[in-house]
């Protein structure tokens, strides 16, 4: 019986509760693997001028051109040098495909719903990254910040809109 | 042509055919709106159109459409049979348009999956009254009425299925553990479990029940299913719920992919095993074949239920046909593939492996020249396939002019020139709305409301709007010209100033053209009151934005008192351009070949610096704005000194700009790809492309650069 | 109204049977061959069906074949046009080609699945069956 249960779990929850975790600085982050298309090695990046500094540029993913962003820069953390452990996590959020440059991939972790607690209230003092974190997960000895990729993207749209407004007023 | 609409249902067919008929009908009507009457051919055509729509809507059980088209058919039957004189032509035109609008409206509802519940009684009564009046006149003239138009009630009906718009399509792959016994039976159980939720289910291997060997195939390759259902993945997994399954992969696919079948989606499916058809009569084959002609033979079996027997599909007999209609998605896919070929070609021809000194490449060069020729031709063919005449777009404009002239009580004539000019399909989609806006503006703001104002200026009473399209030098020019009031510079200036759009510059600071361009600024509208047809908050700025999004521009010309001309200048095609690849620092950029005037080497003394910091180059006694691209975009390792780089003179619409670049790489065909939307629009960059070595180059937007430069 | 329903899918069969039974006797077969048999039997007994609903995808003989067979039998027996049994095809194959084919073979109506009951009744009225 136990066997069956396990199989069922595997089949039903191939994606639920599974998180790709990565390390950046001292902190661990997690993204639900349902958003993840693939993980690739660091690639030559074509910089796009005059964009936000966390948008590192464009990469060529087998003929498809996608933007890549630096997660550290996105969270307003100090930049680090890219090395051979640096990877790009290609995520797909509502058909927007984006690469996330992360320092180091840790592993795929199963995180149970009950282990996820909401992040501490969003006070003014809370750091930039909290905007994109929807929960904290305690696993073994580390605390993982679970990122909501939709927010990561949405926030972007807002800023984009603002940028466009600015552009408009400039034109006027 | 219509017969080839393979994968679409009966309903689509009805909508498609009726849509075509109505379009054609409107064409006739609007062409003849200013004539005195319809000629015999028109009457016959309209009669036939209504007859056909009546018949097909009858089969489809759209009673209101049937009734309305029936009534109009009666009217035209009468016109055809008794050829009465003194038919009120304008009224008739309006009646036909009313019917056409009603049917289009109902068809839109059907298309959206709504009920065609429009009330036809008013139109029918109106037509009845009209027909009576016509007949009454005839009676007065003492002419005998023709026989009543005989109607044959439809004897066959089509009942459209209950709308199932929320169907999802999934590709499901089940892998079983290697030691699973009778995996074919388990696979069957899985299909059986899905039966209740399945609207359509295809799977491979298909002979799971009858052929025990299929078990091995399933173990080796997995069991593939394509499922159409309203259920979500959780429910599907719940239903399959197979204890021996090692993995169940469910991927949502598009209806299009679903239609292609399993063979296209899973490439690694083994050859289908031939099946014993048992006692089935061979006669059965052609029937099955017709059910699914579009699929590749022998790939899978269509079964929504278990019959215990597999059925293969026989080879198709290709039909002879000179014209086929092709799904636009397929055309787009082909276009993308050709783009990939162009890139792949560059990858091969510019391969670094060829850079070995002393390598004899004579034969390679010959072969590659041949390849280049073919890919160029291939591009031309696909481009020509995508070209569509502007006829339909212009047709719409006729209708708009007709409607507005009636509504505003302005007598306006529309002249159409060059409607057969062809433009890429993608572009057509983008110009329809801007063009409509321009035509409305011309009608509403351009043409004078009072004919006396016109005659006072020596113009004919009847206003005139001219719609002209022409193809010149790789660009298409579509202009909307009116002989109305023209733009009043002072008024535009005042308005722009009052709205705080231009600061407090004097009117003399602007050229005429710059003043005209004020109307394209967001939040500008010279008309105080908002009318139904133009100026409802969205203005010319939206037109300009739409046109720019396809790489086009708007030109404005006007003469006060004599009219205005708005011209859309748009590229013929968006996809592939000739470009020159250049290097600046570590980045590569593409310049459109057509905009490059010359390359020159200069020294720093050629640069004139203004106190404000702007730099100019004086060439042949003409000053040109000068941009150091590396500096502008803060590219590291780029050449700072003019003498170390190359200066490119670029021209766009008569304006020049000089760019400092590091070096030229080469000229080649460039497959334009958009910058991913996530990255906000950068002034001066219009897209990107993949180069032969797989790296990405940004395509410079000369117009944007010049604009940017002018602003600073 | 006497109806014959040929449908191999249990769920559809149950649904249709229930619906059609309210207008009178409704016989059910699960494959095409049986449907032709039932039609013949009723004809021989002098109590022919008023309406036959045929699924298209059925085992042994499919709906088209049954439709053709019945029309052939009627032609052979010189049954006049207005005395012919009314036939409604019921199927999820609603491509235009399939519908045209069925019309050419001489069915009275073609209903896509899932069946729009309201329209189905509308057609029964038009065919003067109810």
Description:
- The complex is a heterotrimer of chains A (172), B (712) and C (130).
- Chain A has 172 residues and is an alpha+beta fold.
- Chain A has one domain: CheA-289, Domain 4 (OB fold (Dihydrolipoamide Acetyltransferase, E2P)), CATH 2.40.50.180.
- Chain A has helices spanning 2-12, 71-74, 149-171; strands at residues 18-24, 27-32, 36-41, 55-61, 64-70, 87-93, 96-102, 104-110, 116-117, 133-139, 142-147.
- Chain A has a six-stranded mixed β-sheet with strand order 8-1-2-11-10-9. A five-stranded mixed β-sheet of chain A has the order 3-6-7-5-4.
- In chain A, β10 and β11 form a beta hairpin.
- Chain B has 21 helices and 24 strands.
- In chain B, α3 (63-82) packs antiparallel against α4 and α6 (183-194) packs across α7 (214-221).
- The longest helix of chain B has 25 residues, at 362-386.
- In chain B, 36% of the residues are buried.
- Mean pLDDT of chain B is 78; it is low at 1-8, 266-321 and 526-537.
- Chain C is of the alpha/beta class.
- Chain C has a single domain (3-126), classed as Rossmann fold (3-Layer(aba) Sandwich).
- The chains are: A alpha+beta (172), B alpha+beta (712), C alpha/beta (130).
- The A-B interface holds A 4, 7-8, 10-12, 14, 44, 46-52, 55, 58-60, 63, 65-67, 96-98, 153, 156, 160, 163-164, 168, 170-172 and B 234, 237-238, 240-245, 247-249, 340, 343, 500-501, 521-523, 587-588, 632-635, 673, 675-683, 685, 688, 690, 694-698, 711.
- β1 of chain B pairs parallel with β5 (109-112) of chain C.
Mass-distribution shape of chain B? flat
- Unreliable stretches of chain C (pLDDT < 50, length at least 5) are none
- The class by helix and strand makeup of chain B works out as alpha+beta
If you consult CATH, what is the topology of chain C? Rossmann fold
Strand order of the largest sheet of chain C: 2-1-3-4-5
State the CATH superfamily name of the largest domain in chain B: Histidine kinase-like ATPase, C-terminal domain
CATH class of the largest domain in chain B: Alpha Beta
Q: What is the strand and helix layout of this fold?
A:
The complex is a heterotrimer of chains A (172), B (712) and C (130).
Chain A: H1 2-12, E1 18-24, E2 27-32, E3 36-41, E4 55-61, E5 64-70, H2 71-74, E6 87-93, E7 96-102, E8 104-110, E9 116-117, E10 133-139, E11 142-147, H3 149-171
Parallel strand pairs in A: 2-11, 5-7
Antiparallel strand pairs in A: 1-2, 1-8, 3-6, 4-5, 6-7, 9-10, 10-11
Chain B: H1 10-31, H2 40-60, H3 63-82, H4 89-111, H5 121-140, E1 157-159, E2 168-176, H6 183-194, E3 198-204, H7 214-221, E4 223-229, H8 233-240, E5 245-253, H9 255-260, H10 262-265, H11 284-291, E6 301-302, H12 328-349, H13 362-386, E7 387-389, H14 391-408, E8 412-417, E9 422-424, H15 425-446, H16 451-456, E10 463-472, E11 475-482, H17 489-498, H18 512-517, H19 540-549, E12 553-559, E13 563-571, E14 576-584, E15 587-592, E16 596-600, E17 607-609, E18 615-619, E19 622-628, H20 629-632, E20 646-652, E21 655-661, E22 663-671, E23 685-690, E24 696-700, H21 702-711
Parallel strand pairs in B: 8-10, 15-24, 19-21
Antiparallel strand pairs in B: 2-4, 2-5, 3-4, 3-6, 7-9, 10-11, 11-13, 12-13, 14-15, 14-22, 16-20, 17-18, 18-19, 20-21, 23-24
Helix pairs in contact in B: 1-2, 1-4, 1-14, 2-3, 3-4, 3-5, 6-7, 12-13, 14-15, 15-19
Chain C: E1 3-6, H1 10-21, E2 26-29, H2 32-44, E3 51-55, H3 63-76, E4 86-91, H4 96-105, E5 109-112, H5 117-126
